[in-house]
Specification:
The complex is a heterodimer of chains A (171) and B (317). With 171 residues, chain A is of the alpha+beta class. Chain A is built from 5 helices and 5 strands; from the N terminus they run αβαββαββαα. In chain A, the strands form 2 sheets. Chain A has a 3-stranded antiparallel β-sheet with strand order 2-3-5. A two-stranded antiparallel sheet of chain A has the order 1-4. Chain B has 11 helices and no strands. Chain B is globular, with a radius of gyration of 20 Å. Chain B starts with a helix and ends with a helix. The chains are: A alpha+beta (171), B mainly alpha (317).
Chain lengths: 171, 317
């Protein structure tokens, strides 16, 4: 009997506690930098597109929300002719970011992307592509992997080391 | 002329005030529950979220009013009306102030008990007419619970009747000029309060509608305005019990300085808040625990209170 009254009294005292609610549109909670939010396509430090249209993100996507078409420019460098993410399907799992070999596709701490209809949630390449480098400022895929230029294979030009044989087991 | 117009005005005023209050209670309950759960509750629609009431009303009026094809139609439609009618009828005998009372019945208290007993029909018929398992279980529970709590609800009030020497609620209030009955009749107050919570099937005694066992119990099949009527009926019942506790145990409109109606509303408001605090605090008991509490603890306690009060009154002459 006493414990019942004590319970009610303790609950009553909660009226004077601090509220835990965050009044969302006016006050926003802290979002960590590695938050998995809106997906972007980043550029390398020189301003070129990082994406090499390898389809690994589309293959990794569990809900098949990524669609793209590979193309090659005159130097044989691959790039996506179109790159489309349907955010009404996306579950923000981040598998595409994990799969990406060039750090091109990245998830950002932006989560405010509500729409009244579904169509605006389909983002095209120009919506996804940003001007910056995203989370990896100095990374340039071709400076690491090398690039075949006219008459010279990878590692054959001046000041270049031969490419690492990734299939070798030797140290 | 005046003898016709004034009662009509009072009736209309009481009806309007009660429906407004019961709608406002939806907002009050949500805000208070939030307050006691470290939240804010509805605070977006209008000042302090007060227009939430209006939004809820628009929503519930515009919802589809659906009658399941397997339901017993006439009874299904009748059931929500019964709870509204009985609760409104019970309010007629409550004296809000010396001047504002719909009808000054000699048997006011008995009339209230009769009306709250009739209210059981609403819940039972709703459970039966819905023709579904959960609704029937809810209706069965409601019948058992309300019939057993009805018994000592009446008995707990007999102490007050003995002290006042009248069933007339106005006389009972007048008899409290010297001392509110909450002091000499404290056991009666506690028993009546618990019985009142069970009668209005509010938490912790909301077993007839226990959401997590019976979906919504007796009103599981109801939607739209019919569900709204059960909802409003529940809030009205809560207001009715609070108003009765005020009139029978806390001196009704009596109080210094402030006008009588303010005292009445203030006291009633405090008890409504207490009802909501109970909901915020206690878990729901098992059904056998509820019945055991009613028959093994509350009924003997009410009888003991009755006997002791009677004995003291006889001894005092």
């Amino acid at each position: 009997m006493f414990s019942l009254i004590r319970t009610a009294w303790d609950i009553f005292l909660h009226a004077f506690r601090r509220r835990v609610t965050i009044q969302y549109p006016e006050v926003k909670s802290y979002i960590p930098p590695r938050w998995r939010g809106r997906i972007i396509l980043s550029r390398d430090p020189d301003g070129g597109e990082r994406c090499v249209a390898c389809y690994l993100c589309a293959a990794a996507c569990p809900v098949d929300c990524i669609a793209l078409q590979a193309a090659e420019d005159e130097y044989g460098r691959r790039y996506p002719a179109f790159f489309r993410i349907n955010f009404s399907r996306c579950i923000f799992c981040g598998y595409c970011e994990e799969a990406c070999p060039t750090y091109a596709i990245q998830l950002t701490p932006d989560y405010e992307m509500c729409e009244y209809t579904r169509q605006p949630l389909v983002y095209e390449k120009e919506d996804l592509l940003i001007d910056g480098t995203g989370k990896y400022h100095d990374y340039n895929y071709y400076k690491v992997a090398g690039l075949t230029i006219k008459d010279k294979g990878k590692g054959e030009a001046g000041n270049e080391a031969p490419p690492v044989d990734v299939r070798s087991l030797m140290p | 002329m005046n003898s016709i117009v004034i009662p009509l005005v009072i009736i209309a005023g009481v009806l309007l005030a009660l429906t407004t209050i019961s709608a406002g209670l939806i907002w009050l309950e949500r805000r208070l529950l939030a307050l006691w759960q470290d939240r804010y509750g509805p605070n977006r629609v209008g000042p302090f979220g007060l227009l939430q009431v209006l939004a809820d009303m628009i929503k519930i009026f515009s919802k589809e009013d659906w009658i399941p094809p397997f339901a017993d139609k006439p009874v299904f439609v009748l059931a929500p009306a019964i709870i509204m009618i009985t609760v409104f009828m019970a309010f007629t005998v409550i004296p809000f102030t010396p001047g504002i009372q719909v009808v000054d019945l000699n048997i006011g208290l008995l009339f209230f008990l009769a009306m709250s007993a009739l209210g059981v029909y609403s819940v039972v018929l709703a459970g039966w007419a819905s023709n579904s398992k959960y609704a029937l279980l809810g209706g069965m529970r409601a019948a058992a619970q309300m019939v057993s709590y009805e018994v000592f609800m009446g008995l707990s009030l007999m102490g007050v009747v003995m002290l006042a020497g009248s069933f007339n609620i106005r006389d009972i209030v007048e008899a409290q000029r010297g001392l509110w009955f909450c002091i000499p009749q404290f056991p009666g107050l506690v028993i009546f309060f618990i019985a009142g919570v069970a009668e209005t099937h509010r938490l912790p005694f909301d077993l007839p509608e226990a959401e997590n066992e019976l979906v919504a119990g007796f009103h599981a099949e109801y939607s739209g305005i019919k569900f709204g009527m059960f909802f409003v009926g529940e809030y009205l019942g809560m207001t009715l019990i609070s108003a009765l506790i005020t009139t029978l145990f806390f001196g009704g409109w009596l109080g210094p300085v402030l006008p009588p109606v303010v005292w009445f509303l203030l006291k009633t408001f405090i008890f409504i808040c207490l009802f909501i605090l109970l909901r915020a605090s206690y878990p729901r008991p098992r059904f056998d625990q509820l019945m055991a509490l009613g028959w093994k603890v509350m009924l003997p306690a009410a009888l003991l209170n009755l006997a002791v009060t009677g004995g003291i009154l006889l001894a005092a002459g």
